Each structure stands twice: as C-alpha cells, then as structure tokens.
Amino acid sequence: MIMSDNPWQRARTQLKNTAKHLSLDPLLLARLSNPDRVIEVSLPIKMDDGSVRVFEGFRIQHNNLRGPYKGGTRYHPKVDMDEVKALSFWMTFKTALIDIPFGGGKGGITIDPKKLSAGELERLTREYARKLAPVIGPTVDVPGPDLNAGGVIMELLRDEYSRVVGTDTPSITTGKPIDRGGSEGRTESTGLGGSYALETFLRLMQRNPRGMTVAVQGFGNVGSYLARYLQEMGMRIVALSDSKGGIYIPKGITDLKAVEECKEKSGKLAGCYCVGSVCDLSNMESLGGRDVSPEEVLTLPVDVVVPAALENAITEENAKDIKASIVLEMANGPTTLEADKILARKGVLVIPDFLANAGGVAVSYFEWYQNMHGETWKKDAVFEKLKEKMESAARSVHEASKEYSVSLRDAAYIVALKRLAVM
Ligand code: NAD
Questions:
Q1: 358 CB less than 6 Å from ligand 1?
Q2: Is the pLDDT of residue 303 over 60?
C-alpha cells in the first residue's frame, strides 16, 4: 500500500501540514497524532450448529478533550485497524468543527454479517456490548451506527449495556429506531447536512444552484437523501451509481423516488430509467440516457461531483480527469493526498468530508441530548438546528480559508484545531 492510500497516514499528514499555520502546543499535536486508547476484545459465541467461534472486536477512543468519545461501529470482514484509527481521528475533528461537545472514536467487529444468522448476530452484539461496558458510557464513549451496523444493532447494544449496568440507558448509543429513543431526522441528516454545506458555499461564491448539474457516486442512505435535497434546491441530478453500475441522463433524472423504488425492487440502480411507473432499459433512449460505471460517474462533465460511497474513490489516476468545478465529499476519506494536490492545481473546490458529512453526527448529538434530558424534538426543529450548525461551520471554514489562504480542507482543520487548542 502506498503511503497516500493509507487513511491513517493520510490523516496524520493532513494534521502535520495544517498545524504549520498555527503555533500549537507540541503536546496537543502529539495527543492528536495518536489515539488515546485502542481496545481489542475477544468475542466467543455459540453458533447455531452448536460450535463455538471467537470473533475479534475493537474500539478506538481517539480523543476526548471536548467531550465523550463519539463514533460509529463497523461490521465488516475487512475491518482494518489503520482505517478505523483514521475514522476515529476524523471524528475528533468533525465534532470540533461542527461544534458539539463530543470527541472522536470508532469501533467494529471483523465479520461478514451476511454469513451470520440473526440469532448469531444478536449474541455477537451482546457479547461486544458486555466486553465494552466497562470502558464506554453516556458521558464516556457513545457508539453510533456505521457500515452494516444500523438501528437494530444500536438497539441491541443499548439493551445489553443497560442490562450490565442495571438501568435502562438510551443515551449509550445513537442511531436507534425512533420508537426506541432515536431522533427524528437522523436518517436524512447526513445528506441534508451536505446540501446545507454546499448551499452555503454557493451563496458565499454568489453562484446560483438552479440548473447546476450533479453526479453522485453511491446511492445509499447518504447519496439518495443528498440527491433529493439538491434537486429541491433546483440542481439537476444527471448521474447516479451504486457499486454495480449507474445511469446518466444529461437532461436530468427527474423522478428520484421512482429510481429509488426501482433500485430497491431490482437490487441495483443500473437500468432504472423511469418514465411514469415504468423503470427499465426500454426508456433509456427516449430519455437520452446511457449506462455508466461507478468510476465514470466521477469524471462526467458536470458542475458538482459527489463521492458518497467509499474511501479512496478519487486517486492520482482519475483526479486529472475530473471535470467538475466542485467536489462535495460525502464519503469519509474519498480523496487521496496526491489526488487532493491535483484537484488543487486544477482549481477544483473540494468541500472536505469532515465538514460535508458532519450532519450525521450533529443529529446524533441531538439524539443523545434528547435522551439525556428526556426530551423529544419534532423533525422541523431538528432540521432547523442542523441547518444552523452546518451553515455556521461552512462559514467558519470559508473565513479561515481566506484568512490563511489555504484550501477548504486545511481551513477546516484550522477551525477544528483552534477549538481543540482552547480545551
Ligand atoms: P450505504 O451502505 O447506505 O450506501 C453506500 C452506497 O455506495 C451503496 O449504494 C453502494 O452500492 C455504493 N457503493 C459501494 N461501493 C461502491 C463503489 N465502488 N462505487 C460506487 N458505489 C459504491 O452507506 P451510507 O450510509 O450512504 O454511507 C456512504 C458513505 O458516507 C460512507 O463512506 C460513510 O462512511 C459515509 N458517511 C455516512 C454517514 C451516515 O450517516 N450514513 C455519516 C458520515 C459519513
């Protein structure tokens, strides 16, 4: 693996490069360049056939200067320590940038959840909660959802943690189902937050979003809501893809809901050319569309390109082919260090991940706050508070980029570092 492709090395390099602009205490820099604590746990469980298997789980508590460690839980066969360290590091900067009283953490279990039965997954999750219980807590470390670990897993973690400590503790996790203490608006929050961030920058640049064209790579939770909200702003969504392929309709994909339903029904986005209630290839020609690969989506002639799938989507190889003037990073770590330099040379405005996708953790904080104070907020109130958070963070980043003559990514680090430095 070359150095720029290792997210943990990249995160540390980004920190080193931006810290140069500030005269920071070397102790703070050393603290942020290393996680506070790396926790590894063994998870023996009984399988449905009566055998016993031992899985490996962990939790990285990167930094808690601003509040309890906060971050997702990843269930994936290739859970890699460096990747999770980087993700926990970015959480520290994301929570500081969006100005919520949390630090940064991340966790996971090395597992392919599709290969376990529901019962086995439940036993595994309960074992993980039991092993972590002594080192997490609503004011210590608050796990949230991430890849393959959604609301059901969050609810199981809460239930088992509550059993261990002897009292129901909804605030131990976020991302729970709404009827189990979850917050209104959490599902939409990351996509909606990204649209607020982009809208703020367009306003500051005096650019009208109406008619601007957008291509989105990744049509899951984040990509689908983002596309919907950008369309509501008057932008033209022209391309969408998931991991298997995508569609490109230069005059615009009008009925996003129909495309979503088609993807759900057929299991893939490719071929979802929708006219009325019919979504199939027969409509491709009349819509003037064509199929695209997930990779090609990033290099189409559009105004805004959105990586909303995985890390390392924009690399040294494809950065030079990017034609958009704005990259809205909704995935975590989608641009390698080398690619970042190429985009800067081309004058592409990159709205960095830990600003663009911070809406998710902002609403996680609202969920935690509601749980801690026994409150229930309406969706409109959640969206209003989210808007304030995203706009304020985007404006601070814009101001810092002007003041220090740096990229938005460096500016986002500077804003977050200044907040961490006063703790
Ligand atoms: P998801 O699993 O719901 O969707 C991911 C989408 O990406 C799917 O459509 C999948 O088919 C597609 N995909 C996977 N590999 C691909 C590839 N090689 N090319 C093109 N598409 C591919 O996940 P999500 O919750 O939407 O998260 C997307 C990204 O946003 C991740 O990087 C995640 O870490 C980040 N993120 C998510 C949240 C959140 O609240 N969900 C918050 C912050 C950051």
A1: no
A2: yes
pLDDT tens, residue by residue, 101-128: 999 999 999 999 999 999 999 999 999 9
Per-residue confidence band for 3, with pLDDT thresholds at 50, 70 and 90: very low
Query: Relative to the CA of 334, which ligand 1 atom is closest?
Result: 32
- Please give the Cα distance from 97 to 221 (Å, whole number): 23
Q: What is the CATH number of the domain that holds 161?
A: 3.40.50.10860
Q: What is the pLDDT of residues 122-172, one digit of tens each?
A: 999 999 999 999 999 999 999 999 988 999 999 999 999 999 999 999 999
- The domain in which residue 91 lies consists of 3-10+22-180
SS (H, E, C) 109-141: EECCHHHCCHHHHHHHHHHHHHHHHHHCECCCE
Pairing mode of beta strands 37-46, 52-63: antiparallel
What is the chain's mean pLDDT, rounded?
Answer: 95
Q: Are residues 270 and 235 in the same domain?
A: yes
Domain boundary among 356, 382, 397: 356
Q: Tell me 322's DSSP state.
A: -
Tokens of 283: 């409509």
pLDDT of residue 1: 39
Decide: 245 in ligand 1 pocket, CB within 6 A.
no
Q: Phi first, then psi: give them for residue 293, nearest 5 degrees.
A: -85, 160
**Residue in 90, 221, 240, 306 to alter for ligand 1 test, most ligand atoms within 8 A of Cβ:** 221
Of 106, 176, 263, 387, catalytic: 106
Same-domain check for residues 28 and 172: yes
